[in-house]
Amino acid sequence: MLDGLKRKLRQLSDDPVLRRWLILRALRLTPGEPAFTPHRPPCLGPGWAGLEPETPQAVFPALPEGSPRGRLTLRLPGRVLEVEPGGEATLVAAPLDDPETQLGLHRFAWVPMMKPGDDARWVATIWAAWRARFGTPDSSWAWHPYTAAERAINLITFIRRHGLPGPAEDTLAVLAAHAPAMAARLEYFGEHHTSNHLFNNGRGLYLLGLALGLPRATAAGAAILTSELGRIFRVSGLLREGSSHYHLLLTRSLSSVWLAAREHHRPEAEVFEKALRRAVAVLPHLCLPGRFPLVGDISPDCPPEHLFGLLPGGDRRSGWLDVLPPDQRAPLAALLDEVAPSEPLAEDGWLKASFGDWMGLWHADPEGWSQMPGHGHQDCGGFELHFEKEAVFVDLGRGSYAVAGEADEMVSAQAHNGLSVDGFDPYAANKPYYAESFRRTLGGAPPRLVRDPDGIDLNINGFRRLKGVGAVTRRWRFEGRRLDITDTVAGSGPHLLIRRLHTTCRVEAVAGGLHLHAPGGRRFTITAPDAEITVSPTTLWTAYGEGVPASRIEITIAAAPLPWSGLIRVEAA
Questions:
Q1: What percent of the chain lies above the pLDDT cut of 70?
Q2: Looking at the UniProt record for this protein, which Gene Ontology cellular component terms does it annotate, in alphabetical order (predicted)?
Q3: pLDDT reported for residue 7
Q4: Dihedral over alpha carbons 350, 354, 358, 364 (to 10 degrees)
Q5: What is the pLDDT of residues 23-70, one digit of tens each?
Q6: C-alpha–C-alpha distance, residues 221 and 181, integer Å
Q7: Which of 365, 403, 571, 572 is the most exposed place for a label (fewest CB within 10 A)?
Q8: Of 192, 183, 250, 256, nearest to 223 (Cα)?
Q9: How far apart are CA 151 and CA 111, in angstroms?
Q10: Is residue 544 within 8 Å of 398, Cβ to Cβ?
Q11: Quick check: 427 and 434 in contact, CB under 8 A?
Q12: Within a 10 A sphere around the Cβ of 491, how many other Cβ atoms?
């Protein structure tokens, strides 16, 4: 308790915006948190009281019995485990350092990652060991509603392809028990603080209900899914939460419920298909030639590469699509191939643009503040930029949830290709209880990405909350092989300005700047007049807990006299 109090006091001391909100709230000059009933989403009606147990009606072929052959490698979030036959009980009881790794084990997240040569009977033996220890629903993390939904979906998908692990009656009973367990703790926390988790709760109820013949679970899942579509996705079809990987993940989730609705001739199939088509149409605007930029958080649910079959030109028989039975894979592949790209997403805060051999992806949340709840970062003014097929400047992503939210360096401006003033991020840390009027007062007019024939412009007003600091303007101008980034900061007095670039290229210090040596052999020169340039090691995250070495380039003006303007020049050899 004392540690928790110290943490809250430290947070209050470090966050002047939170202190200001508390004062305004005490004076009743800003509204408080809206009233809501936790775990009871309005879409289920005022009388919703959870789900009673339902008896499964489905019959599945049996998975072959017997002990599995050979060692199994389990790919979990941030860790790879190996188990020998007979080690199942030890495996499921093992305490793991990262909570997301532990949850991945409970979610059977390794099942879709199994290799073609792995013995399917491993699932039966580990499922039996898990049931023996955790098979009764309770309030532990093993039965957290998001985890229960993921486990049920992963196992149902496996069962459809390989057969039902025995004993059949016991397996079906435990699977069916997932529905009332999820329904009792639905992750609804008001309109201001409900994330995509509620959508996934609905997905778990829906897919489990259809697979096992549980009509009440199916109906509840359908109600949640159809209600949440308009809340978590923007009109364009883009997920609101500020993460390219999470958009890809939710596109997969939409695919799964559409395929199930289509197979069972459900009335909501048309609604799901329309939403899926919008989400798919967004994907071309998130892709670059050198790699898929992982902007925002990286989900522990599955590695990004597991979902790359959903991307334009992706291998429709790879990753998650390869887990699907042929009668589901074929219609999904057809839909993916026929959907045309949506209109550009600049109004939603994402802008993909090309200028000659340069192509980039810029991000600036349309509200300025990162979505709350969400998976976005302090990346207003950040970008990922490729030259031909080489990734020159990259978004590092975030490869761990070990440190939560804004406290994580990987969420801050320090880990993005942007700018900070006096050590502060472009916008204050967001809170779910901040009213829109409070955010607008502190953040000013929202940022807007604007493209013209030779570059991109962005105005950022979030720094105006700092004493002596006004609006910030970033301009990217492309001319042939050259890029000029000009930053202008309004205000008065001296201030610490740090601009940052991140790269996986080899970095070499030279007179007057840096050389970047790309893997393909091309060289880029960086210069920044009148600034100190330093380089430090960091990590480019490629999946949750998995990354490759990268470099952080910091371009510093220790006491910039505001108003101030500075140039970064990048030239490709």
A1: 97
A2: periplasmic space
A3: 63
A4: -20
A5: 999 999 999 888 999 999 999 999 999 999 999 999 999 999 999 999
A6: 13
A7: 403
A8: 183
A9: 10
A10: no
A11: no
A12: 20
Instruction: With beta carbons less than 8 A apart as the criterion, state whether 190 and 33 touch.
Output: yes
Tokens (6 digits) for 300: 């522990």
Inter-axis angle of helices 197-212 and 215-232, to 10 degrees? Answer: 150
DSSP label of 155? H
Token pair in block for residue 560 = 């910039």
The residues, any chain, with a CB within 8 Å of residue 407's CB and separated by 6 or more, are none
Q: Which two tokens stand for residue 233?
A: 């996705």
Structure tokens at 217: 């679970």
> CB of 353 within 8 A of CB of 385?
no
Specify the 3-state DSSP secondary structure of 528.
coil
Spell out the residues 6+ positions from residue 141 whose beta carbon is closer than 8 angstroms to its own.
99, 102, 103, 106, 147
Q: What is the mean pLDDT of residues 264-285?
A: 99
Would you state the pLDDT for residue 15? 85
Cα Rg, the chain, nearest whole Å: 25
16-26 helix and 436-443 helix, angle to the nearest 10 degrees? 130
pLDDT tens per residue across span 363-414: 999 999 999 899 999 999 999 999 999 999 999 999 999 876 555 899 999 9
Beta-bridge partner residues of 296: none
456 to each of 47, 237, 424, how far by Cα in Å? 52, 24, 24
| Cα 66 to Cα 223: distance, rounded to the nearest angstrom | 41
The yes-or-no verdict on residue 10 having pLDDT over 80 is no
**C-alpha distances out from residue 307 to 177, 204, 246, 413, Å:** 29, 19, 11, 28
Distance, CA of 450 to CA of 460 (rounded, Å):
12
User: 3-class SS at 433?
Assistant: coil
pLDDT value of residue 405: 57
Distance separating alpha carbons of residues 344 and 321, to the nearest angstrom: 27
Going along the chain from its start, the domains and CATH numbers come out as 51-232 (no CATH), 233-343 (no CATH), 344-572 (2.70.98.70)
**Residue in this structure with the two tokens 């030890």, named with its chain if needed:** 90
3-state helix/strand/coil string of 281-297: HHHHHHCCCCCCCCCCC
